[in-house]
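Duplicate of #3305? Posting structure anyway:
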């Protein structure tokens, strides 16, 4: 199995895997964050969740604590993938990792479009992921839709262990799914370790990344 990113062919693989070497964005292809930065991201997520658990915070504060943790979770997964997805896909994924929570707005307006009391909106479900994946059939929407689908999956990964969980199987099943927080922690530790190893391997690859 090759460690090199597949060459761009202009099709699906090209759209998703193309190496964008322009701006050095925090999710730029070829980026190799130091292990300390990756571990710091993991620790920051933990600290944010510790603060969030200290008391019942106002909704705005809950968001300010939760969204950075969502963003860092998604970023760590992209790092574990070696930032090999296209910059466009990764950008949309990071955007979706927090933007999906805009579906909470109707709740604050007291439009309770949720299947269970105090639950999250039904748009927090695999049905939305499937819808976004269907949109990848439209060539112009392929990269944004793929990124949004990935970002939503990463968002749900965290929501599955916090608050009321997620109505994952809506509309087939309206019940909430809530997993132990320890599952998320274990997954994050594995993802962070993978990101560190991927960074080191790329450093030692022939023709690998040697950023200053
Ligand atoms: Zn959410």
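Output from current build:
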């Amino acid at each position: 199995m090759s460690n090199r990113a597949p060459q761009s062919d202009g099709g699906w693989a090209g759209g998703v895997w193309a190496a964008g070497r322009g701006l050095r964005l925090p999710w730029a292809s070829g980026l190799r964050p130091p292990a300390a930065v990756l571990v710091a991201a993991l620790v920051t997520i933990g600290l944010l969740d510790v603060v969030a658990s200290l008391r019942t915070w106002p909704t705005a504060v809950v968001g300010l604590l939760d969204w950075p943790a969502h963003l860092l979770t998604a970023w760590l997964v992209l790092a574990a993938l070696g930032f090999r997805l296209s910059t466009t896909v990764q950008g949309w994924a990071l955007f979706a990792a927090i933007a999906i929570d805009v579906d909470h707005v109707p709740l604050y307006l007291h439009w309770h479009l949720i299947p269970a009391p105090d639950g999250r909106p039904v748009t927090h479900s695999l049905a939305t992921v499937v819808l976004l994946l269907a949109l990848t059939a439209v060539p112009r929407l392929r990269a944004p839709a793929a990124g949004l689908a990935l970002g939503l999956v990463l968002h749900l990964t965290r929501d599955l262990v916090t608050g009321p969980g997620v109505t994952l199987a809506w509309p087939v099943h309206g019940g909430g799914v809530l997993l132990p927080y320890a599952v998320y922690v274990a997954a994050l530790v594995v993802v962070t370790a993978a990101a560190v190893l991927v960074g080191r391997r790329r450093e030692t690859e022939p023709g690998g990344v040697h950023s200053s």
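Confirmed duplicate; merging threads. The chain is about 55% helix and 0% strand. Residues 26-204 form one domain.
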